[in-house]
Specification:
133 residues, mainly alpha, 5 helices, 81% helix
């Protein structure tokens, strides 16, 4: 077998990347289901890790809006307002699901409204945690 050329290696890598991109919505649904289970069980660190991972993966794989929502969820979990963690997780995951179901990949005007509402929720959580602390 002849050695792999640079051109062949790049072509294989591109094929693999395209496969990962095509499978990403299915990966997202699996991740969202895991996040739902973690939220019901109060395993916040698992959700925070998943949000952190999605924040990085989503933009790379063609879903920057998912990355922005995941960043917001990660911020919500860092507020310390544990009384609202489950609600915040549910709202963020539902928003990400809606984006995937509607094939909203970038922050379009409708999605920008979601992001504003999520930012307001996170800000309220931060204020609530500061008052409680």
């Amino acid at each position: 077998m002849p050695p792999l050329t640079l051109h062949d290696a790049v072509a294989r890598a591109d094929d693999l990347l395209q496969s990962v991109i095509a499978d990403f919505p299915m990966h997202l649904e699996t991740t969202f289901a895991e996040m739902d289970r973690s939220a019901r069980s109060g395993r916040w660190i698992e959700i925070q890790i998943a949000a952190h991972d999605l924040k990085g993966q989503a933009a790379t794989l063609g879903w920057p809006i998912i990355g922005l929502v995941a960043r917001s969820l990660e911020a919500a979990l860092k507020t310390g307002d544990k009384t609202n963690f489950e609600k915040a997780a549910r709202v963020h995951v539902d928003c990400m699901r809606l984006c995937v179901a509607s094939n909203i990949r970038k922050p379009v005007p409708m999605a920008a409204r979601f992001l504003e509402e999520l930012a307001e929720l996170v800000a309220r959580m931060g204020k609530s945690a500061a008052r409680a602390g």
